[in-house]
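Budget justification aside, the reviewers requested a transparent look at the raw inputs and outputs of the sequence design task funded under Objective 1. We therefore reproduce one unedited record. The lines immediately below are the structure tokens for a 302-residue chain.
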């Protein structure tokens, strides 16, 4: 389960540019793309960390569960200069990128990695975590309640678990952007919601849960402390790196959901990702990124 993460679907963070079938993915090839996308979302993560820093002022050990190429793990190292950070992921090539990034930024002496499948690999941690961060990795576990319990068991007394799950689908274009039928992104959202539900149902040991995160965290033996959503707002006109991200996202939508989308929507996507088309995202002036991700926190009782 290589995270940092995920394919493309409704969440659009660095983890959502890959397909959930991980068996045929070349992570060494995907790594640069995932890093680039995470860097684009860095302001959102930084706001989340500033919020967490008010609750955990001096964590000794921070564990990033599902770290991928380590962009967020390195942001933790920057935000908490006294902490040791361990990046955990199932992909060795992505963790190699994480280590290289930490060394390049000067965090290598307090940065470690751990390779393996969640949640069992967390048993290999040498010390309990003061802050355990799980961004969009929990929903890859069939039994999310058991996953939360496993996460909680790896916390030190008084330690904080922060999970990023939920939020709002990202938006990149106006509802009516002048080609095709208005409301394209809303139709994509509906397809992705069905796809996500099926992905969850197909996981080994899948258990259906109501996504009441405060109740789920409490059932894991933790004290729920709050939820907050964080915004990424990159307004139009977008710079080239934002346009490249949007073009990549729309290309994945076309490739993954092309058989489900109607012919008119497929034709619209073809135009949007064509770098030579004046109506494409590479050239149009109304491209933006607007995203909201939600973080839920809980503390292991002392």
């Amino acid at each position: 389960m290589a995270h940092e993460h995920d394919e493309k679907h409704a969440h659009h963070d660095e983890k959502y540019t890959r397909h959930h079938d991980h068996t045929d993915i070349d992570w060494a090839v995907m790594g640069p793309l995932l890093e680039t996308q995470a860097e684009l979302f860095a302001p959102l993560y930084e706001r989340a960390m500033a919020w967490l820093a008010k609750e955990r002022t001096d964590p000794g050990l921070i564990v990033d569960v599902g770290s991928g190429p380590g962009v967020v793990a390195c942001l933790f190292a920057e935000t908490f200069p006294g902490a040791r950070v361990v990046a955990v992921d199932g992909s060795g090539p992505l963790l190699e990128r994480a280590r290289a990034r930490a060394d390049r930024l000067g965090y290598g002496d307090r940065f470690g990695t751990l390779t393996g499948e969640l949640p069992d690999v967390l048993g290999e941690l040498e010390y309990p975590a003061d802050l355990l961060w799980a961004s969009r990795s929990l929903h890859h576990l069939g039994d999310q309640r058991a996953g939360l319990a496993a996460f909680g068991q790896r916390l030190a007394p008084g330690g904080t678990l922060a999970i990023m799950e939920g939020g709002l689908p990202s938006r990149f274009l106006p509802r009516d952007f002048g080609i095709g039928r208005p409301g394209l992104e809303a139709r994509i959202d509906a397809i992705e919601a069905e796809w996500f539900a099926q992905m969850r149902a197909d996981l080994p040991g899948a258990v259906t849960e109501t996504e009441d995160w405060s109740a789920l965290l409490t059932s894991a033996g933790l004290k729920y402390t709050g939820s907050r959503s964080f915004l990424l707002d990159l307004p139009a006109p977008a710079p080239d790196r934002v346009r490249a991200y949007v073009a990549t996202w729309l290309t994945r939508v076309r490739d993954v959901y092309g058989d489900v989308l109607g012919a008119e929507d497929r034709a619209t996507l073809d135009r949007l990702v064509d770098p030579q088309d004046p109506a494409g995202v590479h050239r149009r002036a109304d491209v933006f990124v607007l995203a909201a991700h939600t973080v839920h926190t809980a503390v292991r009782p002392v």
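DSSP finds nine helices and seven strands in the chain. Confidence is low (pLDDT under 50) at residues 1-23. Computational costs for records of this kind are itemized in the attached budget.
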